Amino acid sequence: MITHHPSLLRPPVLTLRAGALGWRPTAPAFLSTTVSAPPPPPLLRLRPLRAAADGASPISGDGGKRVVPPPSLQAALLGFVRSNFLPLALVGGVILGLLDPTLGCLAHKFSLSKYSTFGIFVISGLTLRTKELGAALEAWPAGLYGLASILLFTPFLAQFVMQIQFFPPEFIFGLAMFCCMPTTLSSGVTLTQLVGGNSALALAMTVLSNLLGIITVPLSLAKYIGAGAGVSLPTEQLFRSMVTRLLIPLIIGKVARETSKGIADFVDRHRQGFSIASAVLLSLVPWIEVSRSRSLILSLEVKAFVVALTIGVILHLALLAFNAAILQVLSRLEQKGESVFAKKEYARAVILVASQKTLPVLIAVVDQLGGALGESGFLVIPCVAAHINQIIIDSVIVNWWRQRDQHFANTK
Fold first, then answer.
1. How far apart are CA 248 and CA 267, in angstroms?
2. CATH number at residue 227
3. Where are the membrane-spanning stretches (predicted)?
């Protein structure tokens, strides 16, 4: 009869290591009378360790964990490109148009920008997951404020932008139009997820603002831009264009996703590929517009670009400050319990999403205006810069929020 647990007789790790050296410890005498010794373990053949490339041992002194080598330069560059593909694609399109406008002018001749905009919103519909929208119902007051800020309050800033005297005036017109746009299609939701905000609320504001923007954008442009520039914008034509080039492709993509589980699964497995395709399609438009206006763009002073870039940065910081201040005020108005506006996950979602503006809708609008406000290239360039700036600024803010949350978690 066995009177002792086998693990007390021969620890397997000790036996294995000792056996590798050609010596096997025996059980104590008072145990060997009651339990027969197990068969000796097979001898292990020691293999020479392969030297690491940097001369370091693969075994560290922190418990035997393998030292992870630093990523190579190629891997680091590839990771950077993947994480920043959209701004790199937009900048690349502008540079390519300035270097050689031939292909861009040819693409304009065949109206490639119209098909690229259509493709962008088909992809948006394919990648749009709306099952989480119900989770945003709890925060409906925050979502309602977010929609009002995106579609009503921030477009109101366009009339102040229009008061800036600047040459070329198209730079100012473009930034003022940018104020009238709905929120971004993906970056706001992505940044909300990174910072631990309520992604369902962010997604709800994104979907609804872009759908309602089909109605509000033409009206805002006519009220704040057309009147300020002294031109009459084709509001009805703009509305029809946004329906055919934005809403219909979005519905096509969404219907395809909802009616076919295979398509939905394929899109979800290759979301990064679809994101890259959307970025490439989006970069085609500034490439085409810059190619068309290359001679005029090169005639401008660098100072004009720097000033337009600065105005775009100030504009985005103003939107962030405005939304943060209003949420702070609203959080103090509710007396019973914790206000929805005071909850960190809701407030951050609203601040990020309500302060960003989308570039694809603006590009569709500029293409439809047909030069009513001046050179299309001049209208697009400051907005491309403003779009890139808002992603960079909000990424810095998200990183700061995450570091602060980590600090608070460590001090508890």
1. 19
2. 1.20.1530.20
3. 75-99, 111-130, 142-165, 171-191, 203-225, 273-290, 302-326
Distance from the first to the final alpha carbon of the chain? 54
Complete DSSP assignment for 124-160: HHHH---GGGGGGGGGHHHHHHHHHIIIIIHHHTHHH
Asked whether the beta carbons of 189 and 112 are under 8 A apart, the reply is no
- With contact defined as beta carbons under 8 Å apart, do 31 and 9 qualify? yes
Task: Say if CB 122 and CB 278 are below 8 A apart.
Answer: no
Which residues contact residue 123 at a Cβ distance below 8 angstroms, ignoring those fewer than 6 apart?
A: 253, 274, 277, 278, 281
| Vertex 21 angle, CA 48 and 27, to 5° | 150
Sequence-separated (6 or more) residues with CB below 8 Å from residue 59? 66, 67
Is residue 179 domain-shared with residue 284, that is, in the same domain? yes
Domain membership of residue 60 (yes or no) is no
136 domain residue, yes or no: yes
Same structural domain, 230 and 320: yes
Contact 341, 329 (CB under 8 A): no
pLDDT in tens, 102-145: 998 998 888 887 888 888 888 888 887 777 667 678 788 999 99
Question: Cβ neighbours of residue 214 under 8 Å, at least 6 residues apart?
Answer: 239, 242, 243, 246, 247
CA–CA gap between residue 388 and residue 399 (Å, rounded): 17
Max mean pLDDT range (104-108, 230-234, 352-356) = 352-356
Residue 325 lies in a domain: yes
Q: Are residues 391 and 262 in the same domain?
A: yes
Residue 185 parent element (H or E): none
How many domains is the chain built from?
A: 2
| pLDDT over 50 at 47, yes or no | no
Q: Which residue has the tokens 């366009």?
A: 158
Helices within 165-225 (DSSP H only): 169-179, 187-194, 199-220
Residue 368 placed within a domain: yes
How far apart are alpha carbons 89 and 116 in whole angstroms? 14
146 and 260 inside one domain = yes
Bridge partners (DSSP) listed for residue 59: 66
Any residues with CB less than 8 A from the CB of 43 and at least 6 apart, and which? 19, 20, 22
Report CA 64 to chain centroid distance, whole Å: 38
Residues pairing with 30 in the sheet: none
**Where do the H-state alpha helices sit in 223-270?**
227-229, 235-242, 248-259, 261-269
